[in-house]
Amino acid sequence: MAINYQELGLVNTRDMFKKAMAGKYAVPAYNFNNLEQLQAIINGCGQSGSPVILQVSSGARKYANPTLLRNMGKGAVEMARESGYTIPIALHLDHGDSLDLCISCIENGFSSVMIDGSHLPYEENIRLTKEVVDYAHKHEITVEGELGVLAGIEDDVVAAKSVYTQPDDVEDFVTKTGVDSLAISIGTSHGAFKFKPEQCSLNEKGLLVPPPLRFDILEEIEKRIPGFSIVLHGSSSVLPEYVDIINKNGGSLKAAVGIPEEQLRKAAKSAVCKINIDSDGRLVITAIIRKVLKEKPAEFDPRKYLGPARDELTRMIIKKNERVLGSAGKY
Length: 331
Ligand code: G3H
Ligand code: 13P
Ligand code: ZN
What we know:
The chain is an alpha/beta fold and 331 residues long. The chain has helices at residues 14-23, 35-48, 58-64, 66-82, 99-107, 122-138, 167-177, 215-224, 240-248, 261-268, 279-295, 302-325, and strands at 27-31, 52-57, 89-96, 112-115, 142-147, 152-154, 157-159, 181-184, 201-202, 208-209, 229-232, 272-277. The protein is 46% helix and 16% strand. The site of 1,3-dihydroxyacetonephosphate has 14 residues, from β3, β12 and α11.
């Protein structure tokens, strides 16, 4: 039997984005696969008073089990309310690749879906995206589409180089598909290795500085579809403090580089209403688990290393909402 997201206490992204556009901030979309990540997202966003999009990839759904995941979403809302957090919470499918997957998520309580046809020829992207919109809107579900290709790993697809979104296409795409928001490619990239060292310059501390985001393309897009909600994928900053902890505690992440926080701050003040963050959360968890296990080699209670990892992730989320997204206190 189909479960409606409203019964779970979730909301779609419509009002969230309207307020984010007016208030010049971006709503965070944090990916989760397990209990500790979900606890950290709810507590981090609850404590900082930020609206939040709980984001689930098809891989996460396979990993966690769709039924368990829906109940985790429901439990997350109940936990938030019991903790006194009145923040709006959306449950969103990340990088959906078919109508069937979107329908399955909608029937399992998701309040928002992404249909990612960015790798398809333009007309096919329009056709698939419109099909999803037609189905989703009957159920008051919001839909994110994508135009342009991000470099890096996009689920199972590895794109060698980014194909920036063409401003000439965006008005036609959003009109023909009816999407509620549009993910664009302006130089962000998925994963912890967003740029090759040869694409970067070095700063005075010897750290790699990536090429700047293409704010000129973003501005051109804003002119073509004024007031329309834009989404940035691949927006982890790959925080050097956590990469350092990983490398000092037996890990080996060389030349990991992300999107500088000040550029994301600038984007959040524009029509960018949603910023996707997954890799930064993965790095925090891995860093703390490595550190605890190295310091306490006899420890074998998962709560003793997952607990500190979760607590550090909560702190990172609060900082991001306050200093980067600008979403803290905007519920
Ligand atoms: O954009 C992709 C997200 O980071 C999800 O990654 O497919 O490994 O769950 P995943
Ligand atoms: P990061 O890999 O930069 O965290 O991007 C996540 C993302 O875009 C999820 O869709
Ligand atoms: Zn993405």
